[in-house]
Design brief:
The protein is about 50% helix and about 20% strand. The chain is of the alpha+beta class and about 120 residues long. The chain has a 4-stranded mixed beta sheet with strand order 1-2-3-4, with no helix packed on it.
Length: about 120
């Protein structure tokens, strides 16, 4: 399930906190798409009420690539191949959140380990 929120002055810090508390209480799994009036978008991915990944904003692909170089250099070449050949995303069955799904694929293939994924996500 995906909820879409348009970031406006009415969606202030206290209402954001209330929403996050409600999502945690209800153990929400899915994503929230936040759109600003400046055409920026962020996606927050939840599992059982906890944020497990966030993506978006300006230059998200550059940020992802930079963090790969630092935390997951062993898969950077594979990522560059995916960028050059979008058909590979289809072959890998990536539909939802390509950034998160790639991490999951590499983890399942034992190309990276959970500690590296945590460092990458934190960065």
């Amino acid at each position: 399930m995906t909820l879409t929120i348009y970031s406006q002055k009415l969606f202030n810090t206290s209402s954001q906190g209330g929403l996050l508390a409600e999502l945690q209480k209800s153990e929400f799994s899915g994503s929230i798409l936040v759109k600003s009036t400046k055409s920026e978008e962020w996606e927050l991915i939840f599992y059982l009420g906890r944020i497990i990944y966030a993506q978006g904003g300006h230059h998200s692909v550059r940020r992802y690539q930079r963090n790969l170089s630092i935390h997951l250099p062993e898969v950077k070449t594979e990522f560059l191949q995916l960028r050059e050949n979008p058909q590979l995303q289809t072959e890998l069955n990536i539909e939802y959140s390509w950034e998160y799904e790639l991490l999951d694929i590499w983890l399942k293939q034992h190309k990276i380990d959970p500690k590296q994924v945590n460092q990458f996500i934190t960065a």
